[in-house]
Amino acid sequence: MMPNTDQVFRLNWESFSSGDKRADSGSDLSIFIGDLAPDVTDALLYETFSGRYPSVKGAKVVFDSNTGCSKGYGFVRFGDESESTRVMSEMNGQY
């Protein structure tokens, strides 16, 4: 359960266009987290996943640069592929 919210969030694999490059690709696996409540922060998203999955490396909520409001989605990075796969099945559709 996402603390202090009543909203379900969605999970999906993160993807990059073919032109995008990441310096550390191969070492990190990011998962898209959608339908986040407006008050969810990077720290809250990180705590929600890192308490259950030790390979979490970071979490980022995406904010609108014009309004400063959350866009309702973010990403969680993992260092372990099997754990990120497990997250997709265990956490998809959870509050």
Automatic annotation (TrEMBL):
Where is the protein localized? Cytoplasmic granule; Nucleus
Specify the superkingdom: Eukaryota
Q: Which family does it belong to?
A: Belongs to the polyadenylate-binding RBP47 family.
Keywords in alphabetical order: mRNA processing, Nucleus, Repeat, RNA-binding
| Full protein name | Putative nucleotide-binding alpha-beta plait domain-containing protein
Could you state one GO biological process linked to this protein? mRNA processing
Q: Name the predominant localization.
A: cytoplasm
Q: Name one GO cellular component term.
A: nucleus
Subunit structure and binding partners: Interacts with the poly(A) tail of mRNA in nucleus.
Query: So what does this one do?
Result: Heterogeneous nuclear ribonucleoprotein (hnRNP)-protein binding the poly(A) tail of mRNA and probably involved in some steps of pre-mRNA maturation.
One GO molecular function term of this record is:
mRNA binding
